[in-house]
Amino acid sequence: MTHLAPAVYLTWAALSLLLGSFLVYHLWSYDRFKCLKWNRGPHSGAFKRIMTYTYVTCIPLFTTYAVGFAIIKYQYGYTYVPGYGVLPTPYELWSERSRNAIVPLYLCWSFGWALEMVSHLEELCFWIFLVKSTSAKQDWFRTIYFKAWAVGSCIALIYMPLVTILTRNNVQKCEAYSILAGSMGDLFLTIWFIPVLWAFPSFIENLRQSDVDKNTLVRLTKFHELNCIRILFRFLFTIPLIILGVDGVRPHQHINDKPFPTDLLAIVAGIGVVMSSGITLVIFFPRSIEMEMARRDASRDRRRMRAISHPSPQFTTGMQHTSDDGIYISPTVDRHVPMTEYSDHGGSVRVEHGWRHGPPSYERIAGREGEPRERERERYYREDFDIDTPDIKSTASRIHLQPNRRTETGDIEFGSMVRANWGSSFVRRDSRPTTRRTEVNYLVHNWRSPIDFEPES
Questions:
Q1: Where do the H-state alpha helices sit in 373-417?
Q2: Which residues contact 244 (CB under 8 A, 6 or more apart)?
Q3: pTM for the full predicted model
Q4: Which residues contact residue 434 at a Cβ distance below 8 angstroms, ignoring those fewer than 6 apart?
Q5: What pLDDT score was predicted for residue 393?
């Protein structure tokens, strides 16, 4: 593809840089780059590490290939070739340094594409296993699908760079065979994915009949739709490159010698690979907006509580002494700070020696001194919410609070308020169905992504 126009490689470079920026933003929003740590806890197994580093590595390799060729192409621009007109400068007219960079750049392309096929093959094998699994205890790591992924990944990691190395003496042949080998392998995986997507709706319906958790069904439905969209972009990626590769290995080219179809197919392929990789990122590292909002609210509440735990100086009645155990306020009244005290008649007076009897109570400020607490709570419900106030004493005995719990996968299961009597005026806010785990594989119940799971203990 050294005969492509500089604008084509500029498009590829811009798209790959955008994909890299999205990768950084998404992983930061996902878990603040914790997924990139080698050992991030009991759920960071070897399989998850391999899949994470495999996917994260292929994007910089694609970016290196695109940016490197874009720099070289714009460095030499266009040249008038007798009998052909104005064309992108042929690589034969490049400097020795630029020609020596062609094979390393194509090795980056080959390794990146091999890692991309490893990710695609893992997803294909995992979804086939999940759809065809008939036992709740069947382990993914002991199935034929996992072994097929392991063998296929080794083949992809060997044959893609090997094709580039064996054809490196002829630059045009190296380009053509490298592109053809990668596009044919990826097209084969894409075609095999279609039956899985076809069977997936019935698989979700069977899970619904098995009383699988609704949140799990929602996640599976969302990822099924994302996979359908990604398959479309993978076809846009592989089919144009197969056309260019097949035409390149022929003795007489009918497409590669024409600038318009060559540049058009290359741009379409670049859009397809970037969009496909972006959707793969979302599938492998799915964000939970609900969890992110909960973390932000919890962080905001902690800051608010820290601010409340350090009151303003005008509400202290003594001197503060700081130590390692906290702040101690000595009970002295010798401070000469002008303060304001609310009087019983609604006005206020200035006091030069602090509060006479400590800071005023809420009831005194609001003019409700002496009012019972229960009556005050009744007034709050009636005035602000305009609803009938339940009998607090009789209702509280029928209310059970279920706290937040951290699951085995590290997720937070939100608590709920459960009533003991269905006739109570309070209702249960969160009801989770009971799942029959004997009919569905255990990976389904705590499923988050095709790489985020561990063997059942």
A1: 373-380, 392-396
A2: 1, 176, 179, 255, 256, 262, 265, 266
A3: 0.69
A4: 211
A5: 47
